[in-house]
């Protein structure tokens, strides 16, 4: 059940819920909550499975009740990863809320969509700036909170259970870490303020959106849901329809593969200057005592490159893939290419930031040993940095490939080709039986890619 819920993108959930609930704020909330809840459940279960089980078994053997044993053994060990992934998923939900604006759910995404349709480019850029500022503020806030709590990575996948994280010796130079106090997290005023704000934000958001959950079981909702389910039972597709679905399915997979390959390649390149412990004076590529490493001009250039590379990654990931696709469709012809480029641009920003965090947290002892032996920057990267981090980089790429395949359907909805474009035609013609068949093919594709990705990540973890 969870696999089915997470296989369908939140934009598709939004379109379906729109047919049942109409223009209701609950459409956007439920469209994000349903697939994200399934994704979080899956990732949480994987985190708990990879947590060392010895303390749990010891408590169970001592006669402690299972629930208490779970709360006092697995949860404290897994808490850093659980909270870090929760922050990451919150950032993703912020971008998804902008995506849902395309189907009329309101917000910045809807304003950007209207600006594109009316060719008001000054308003379009204003919407882009607002998205970037909003995502940047959330990124900085989550980074500060995670650092204060001692969590160094927002998405710590493919790490061996019990493996330690090595902090960079330049951690004190980070704008996120210089705020970290020496006192316990519970005494941190910023953490207290953050938790109080998060607790208050939930009821305030519900009040601001004027959510009315009674509409979920209203007679009109039940009638529309029954009509939708009644018209969604598909007949057996013909051979011609199956051939067309197979061709579009291949185009969808090819789009996701091209997109994730480009995103992974450029993310790998940008992760070097975007990591704060690389080019700054005293960093891995410019150790203390190296000629030219400490002069003011080089230091200023290193800081400028750090800021520019992080800004590029922020802009790239702050703008959702379907909005990138809408912009690219104004420049390129409709087809697979603008869809692949839109997905690549968005995932490039996410992968580049995740890879930069991995670079910041790597064990720097082998790298500094190479530098002490006279190795140049290229040799340090090729023989000291990438061998340590390549496994986790590939794990991130495979993880994002699963997400990228889900996102192919939404760039297809705006005319970028693949199964998404067929889905758009079927929805606009109220062909709900065809929508059911197309979604079934898409869910099967998602399951296949998910299984392949899990197997490959398991091999990398060994």
From TrEMBL:
The chain crosses the membrane at residues 12-38, 58-75, 96-116, 128-145, 189-209, 248-275, 296-315, 321-345, 366-386, 432-452. Residues 1-142, 249-453 form the ABC transmembrane type-1 domain. It is found in: Cell membrane. It comes from the Bacteria. SUPFAM superfamilies: MetI-like. It is a multi-pass membrane protein. One of its GO terms (cellular component) is plasma membrane. It holds the Pfam family BPD_transp_1. GO terms for biological process: transmembrane transport. Keywords: Cell membrane, Membrane, Transmembrane, Transmembrane helix, Transport. CDD domains: TM_PBP2. Belongs to the binding-protein-dependent transport system permease family. This is Phosphate ABC transporter permease. It comes from Shackletoniella antarctica.
């Amino acid at each position: 059940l969870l696999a089915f819920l997470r296989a369908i993108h939140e934009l598709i959930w939004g379109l379906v819920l729109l047919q049942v609930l109409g223009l209701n704020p609950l459409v956007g909330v439920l469209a994000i909550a349903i697939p994200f809840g399934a994704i979080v459940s899956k990732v949480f279960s994987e985190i708990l499975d990879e947590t060392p089980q010895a303390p749990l078994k010891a408590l169970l053997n001592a006669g402690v009740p299972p629930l208490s044993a779970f709360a006092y053994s697995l949860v404290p060990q897994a808490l850093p990863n659980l909270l870090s992934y929760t922050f990451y998923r919150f950032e993703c939900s912020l971008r998804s809320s902008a995506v849902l604006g395309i189907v009329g759910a309101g917000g910045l995404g809807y304003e950007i969509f209207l600006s594109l349709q009316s060719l008001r480019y000054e308003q379009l850029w204003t919407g882009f700036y607002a998205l970037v500022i909003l995502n940047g503020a959330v990124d900085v806030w989550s980074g500060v909170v995670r650092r204060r709590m001692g969590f160094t990575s927002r998405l710590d996948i493919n790490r061996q259970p019990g493996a330690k994280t090595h902090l960079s010796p330049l951690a004190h130079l980070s704008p996120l870490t210089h705020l970290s106090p020496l006192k316990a997290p519970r005494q941190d005023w910023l953490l207290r303020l953050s938790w109080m704000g998060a607790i208050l934000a939930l009821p305030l958001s519900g009040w601001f959106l004027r959510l009315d959950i009674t509409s979920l079981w209203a007679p009109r909702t039940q009638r529309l849901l029954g009509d939708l389910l009644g018209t969604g039972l598909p007949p057996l597709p013909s051979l011609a329809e199956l051939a067309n679905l197979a061709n579009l399915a291949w185009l969808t997979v090819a789009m996701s593969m091209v997109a994730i390959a480009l995103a992974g390649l450029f993310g790998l390149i940008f992760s070097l200057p975007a990591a704060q412990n690389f080019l700054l004076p005293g960093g891995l590529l410019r150790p203390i005592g190296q000629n030219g490493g400490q002069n003011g001009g080089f230091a200023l250039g290193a800081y400028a490159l750090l800021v520019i590379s992080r800004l590029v990654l922020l802009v790239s990931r702050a703008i959702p893939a379907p909005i990138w696709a809408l912009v690219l469709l104004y420049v390129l012809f409709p087809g697979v290419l603008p869809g692949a480029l839109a997905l690549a641009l968005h995932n490039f920003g996410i992968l580049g930031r995740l890879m930069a965090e991995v670079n910041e947290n790597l064990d720097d002892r082998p790298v500094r040993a190479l530098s002490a032996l006279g190795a140049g920057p290229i040799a340090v990267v090729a023989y000291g940095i990438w061998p340590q981090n390549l496994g986790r980089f590939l794990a991130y790429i495979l993880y994002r490939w699963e997400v990228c395949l889900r996102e192919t359907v939404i760039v297809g909805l705006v005319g970028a080709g693949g199964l998404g474009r067929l889905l758009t035609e079927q929805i606009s013609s109220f062909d709900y039986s065809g929508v059911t068949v197309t979604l079934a093919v898409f869910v099967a594709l998602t399951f296949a890619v998910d299984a392949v990705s899990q197997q490959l990540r398991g091999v990398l973890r060994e």
